Amino acid sequence: MLELRGATVNYGNFSAVQQADISVEEGDIVVLLGANGAGKSTTFRAISGLVRLVSGEILFKGDSIDGKSPDKIVQMGIVQCAEDRKLFPQMSVEQNLMMGAYVHRKNKKQIRKSLEEVYELFPILYDKRTNFAHSLSGGQQQMLAIGRALMSKPKVMLLDEPSTGLAPLVVEQMFKSIQQINNNGTTILLAEQNAKVALSIATKGYVYENGSIAVEGKPKELFSNEKVRKAYLGA
Known about the structure:
single chain; about 240 residues; alpha/beta; 6-stranded mixed beta sheet; 4-stranded antiparallel beta sheet; 10 strands; about 25% strand
């Protein structure tokens, strides 16, 4: 469904991502692991059209999306939920959600259905639908960011560090929600530092080191890899 072939991204003379090969099948939850600055977010920015490749290609359903504008990529069905949430703090919860539905703005029936689905997934957002986004807790803000992304009816959702700054219990709830989103038909590409939780729901994983993919495999293989265990699983 989504494939990177030799994807390379530079910032000036600095190579942020080098020759990345990633394959995401429809229905997968694929996790990108790695420390801050390893290249995960840059990979997401490249997929979303926010930065350009200097070499390689990105394919969506077999067609190249290199050079397409971010709004066109969203319309195709690839939506990113950024690490720092990028909410509109002085707008209400529901107004934030409606911003996510912009690509379907002419289809009022679809928007109402999507809104109902988000509120069903995150009931607290319905309870707080008139509250300003900045008044929400960290976990609720993350729910809102994911809910806003869902409003565009994505085929593939890019989730960048959704557990950042959240309490362990909230992280557990968040990952259950991500599983539910996947079960409902959305393919997930997830960047995470919380390797243990991420691999527990993933179908496949890639480990970044200094902009390159150092290890890849199924969760069981990564759990048994001594290098991965020491670096990311505390074992």
